[in-house]
């Protein structure tokens, strides 16, 4: 046997040199550090129970609602957005994105031109036929419809999964749950306050108890005078509000600093809310847009209801 043959046999019969073994260990460690979805497809259920399957984390996302646009920025996935709808104005970077119509009227050609590998749809806010058309064209669609604050926390977690931003999504969800728990602890025993929450003026619209804002009202110790209505965002008449005679009226507005809707109620001096100066404004993006900033809106609402409770002593006989 010549030296060359001997060397070859020796290599097969003995363990790999230390440097080679080290290289193998390093490769295994790198693989272990990869997120699970990098090693296979991503599966997640949306808010309608549909299973969304992606071969890899989404790289080109189109959002069909301002709240979904904002959520992606919250979880650090704003760089994945290639398009959104009108009124997507928070944070400032969102306003620079290409616009694909409004939430209620989508420009399908514009969406397709952006070549999305994921579309985030608002179940109750987007036209169902247009969303279904996108799916029929082979575009993965995630439908979102948070009705409870816990649903919002899960949205943060799920969207962070499909965009490979799990750490940020987890942190945001933990912070939201902690904030909700803190408000529950602080306001659980406060006396109830009957209120009317106005989300639009013409037509006059409110929300029922199944709406996410309904849970915020309950969290603060409020009682929604139209909470038992069937529709999620029912239309109501001025006469119905006058008959309900709420102790508090809370409104957003057509802008972030437009108090005009509240001023209109001053015409009805017989309303308890008017008599006691319990007309409160909350910027709509803080409570009517379903994002982590809803905690800020909830804080404001809880404070306003405490103001109304304090004013009861001013009118006591």
Task: Provide tags for this entry.
4-stranded parallel β-sheet; 13 helices; Rossmann fold; 12 strands; ABC_Transporter_SBP; signal; 2 domains; 317 residues; Putative vitamin B12 transport protein; disordered N terminus; Vit_B12_bind_prot; globular; alpha/beta
- Name the CATH homologous superfamily of the largest domain: Nitrogenase molybdenum iron protein domain
CATH architecture name of the largest domain: 3-Layer(aba) Sandwich
Give the CA-based shape. Answer: globular
Residues in helices, as a percent range: 40-55%
> How confident overall, as mean pLDDT?
88
Order of strands across the main sheet: 4-3-7-8
Examine the coordinates and then state which fold CATH places here, giving the name of the CATH topology of the largest domain.
Rossmann fold
Distance between the amino and carboxyl termini: 115 Å
Strand content: 5-15%
The beta-strand count equals: 12
Helix-strand makeup class: alpha/beta
Taking the sheet with the most strands, its summary is:
4 strands, parallel
**Discrete helix count:** 13
Sequence stretches where pLDDT stays below 50 over 5 or more residues: 1-16, 25-39
Taking all Cα atoms into account, the compactness measure Rg is 27 Å
N-to-C order of helices and strands: HHEEEHEEEHEHEHHEHEHEHHEHH
InterPro entries: ABC_Transporter_SBP (IPR050902), ABC_transptr_periplasmic_BD (IPR002491), Vit_B12_bind_prot (IPR054828)
Protein name: Putative vitamin B12 transport protein
Keywords: Signal
Organism: Thioalkalivibrio sulfidiphilus (strain HL-EbGR7)
